[in-house]
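Before a colleague's protein record goes any further, I have to sign it off. What it holds is a sequence and that sequence's fold in token form. My question to you is simply how this chain folds and whether the tokens agree. Thanks in advance; the entry in question is below:
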Amino acid sequence: MTPEEIRDRGELERFLRRDASRHVYGLADLDDAFFPDTRWFASRDTAGEIDALCLVLEKLALPIVYAVAPPEHPPTLALLRALTPCLPRRFFANFPIGYEKVLGDTHEIAPLGEYVKMHLADAAGLERHEIPGIETLGPEHAAELDAFYGERAFGPSEHLGFYERCMLEQFPWFALRERGELVSVAGVHVFSRRYGVAALANVATAPARRGRGLARAVCARLARELAAHVPLVGLNVASANAAARRCYEALGFRAVLHYEEAVLTVRGESL
């Protein structure tokens, strides 16, 4: 099978809209802020319709390869196998469960675990989860956020997801402080008014301040603001993070797909 490279945004959008709640990130990457830096590869079924899609985004420091699909999805796994020579030498992957079967021989895999894609199914109760004192953050807070994520936000076995300063430029982030220091933050990975999608990300609360509903409060405020601007709000969360999943479910988010995240490097390449 020879993958087809596609640049027709209309055709790409039609495919992604079939399961829009699974493809918040893919739809956002059609926007002008990202599309010029993307490559889109597809396979087609016997009727000529796209049946699998893989996005390669090389704008960020660590390229992203996005091929989200149901577990063990045969067309997507076949597409990944065919694309192996075209992929970056090292990249961050969003892949279907079972992808190791087709890339395990050619790549060193640093698994980050199974994740769940969720979307905001009911925004009606968000306001009741908010608390006083929530403030907005923007690009002018980049250095402070660097310090928060690097020094105070996580315990020894925890790690930050995908954070880059350019994400602060898309939409306001929300936070709580105590004694002038950030203690809980909720941010945005992608926001596209044109395609009507947004994704929460980089949610963190300082370990000593957990268990008080702070993350729920800042996420509720951010989700409410996003929902006022776009009809589809999503997020990704680790399957094993039961506390976070309960938080998001309480806010009205519902699971739509399980998938895997990992960093892949071509075998024999130096890191």
Remarks:
- The longest strand covers residues 107-120.
- The chain has two domains: 4-116+259-266, 122-251.
